[in-house]
Design goal:
The protein has two helices and nine strands. By secondary structure, it is mostly beta strands. It has a domain of about 130 residues: Jelly Rolls. The strands form two sheets. Strands 1, 3, 6, 7 and 9 form a five-stranded antiparallel beta sheet that branches. It is flat and about 90 Å long. The relative contact order is 0.27.
Length: about 180
């Protein structure tokens, strides 16, 4: 009798484990009720969500040749492109570069992210002032190899678009790549 009970238990367990698992993707669509809070946000018409809502995205601004230019030489900083950060609240920056041979002078490759706003742009172009910058840099020693990389740095975003300006305090041209991981 006991053997029969144990055998019955194993057969039931085997049957339970052999059934296919159901995931959320197999569930039928469900009706969703949207509550309208007019004082907070007015919702009118049909509400739809196409696909998943992204939490993060990686933007690469790369392969920009940066000749030697000091960060204080505002008018000579190299244009690295525009970072569109609209809809995101923070960014993790990583900067990497490839120098054209070993340098004789240690220095750094760096980038400023400058808000792309009319008032900020005017201060940059007319007065050589950088307002509200986000900065990242990667050191290059004369004794190291040609590749350089920064530490990753997280920053809070305050503007929807940023202009990237690059500098290079070494004595060699460096090809720079900026990785911006935008998150919420």
């Amino acid at each position: 009798m006991r053997r029969l009970a144990i055998l019955g238990f194993f057969v039931a367990a085997l049957a339970a484990f052999s059934l296919p698992a159901r995931g959320a993707a197999e569930d039928a669509p469900r009706l969703v009720r949207v509550v309208n809070w007019p004082a907070v946000q007015k919702i009118e018409g049909k509400v739809t969500v196409d696909g998943t809502i992204p939490h993060a995205t990686l933007v690469t601004l790369g392969d920009v040749a940066v000749p030697p230019v000091e960060p204080k030489e505002i008018g000579r900083l190299i244009d690295g492109g525009i970072l569109n950060a609209e809809g995101f609240t923070s960014v993790v920056l990583s900067l990497t570069g490839n120098a054209g041979g070993r340098g004789f002078r240690s220095g750094a490759l760096g980038a400023y992210l400058i808000p792309d706003e009319p008032e900020v742009r005017r201060a940059y172009e007319q007065d050589s002032q950088i307002l509200f910058p986000i900065e990242i840099s990667a050191p290059l020693n004369a004794t190291t190899f040609r590749m350089l990389a920064s530490n990753q740095a997280r920053h809070t975003l305050g503007f929807p678009r940023y202009r990237v300006r690059l500098y290079n305090t070494t004595d060699k041209v460096v090809n720079a790549t900026l990785y911006a991981y935008l998150t919420n």
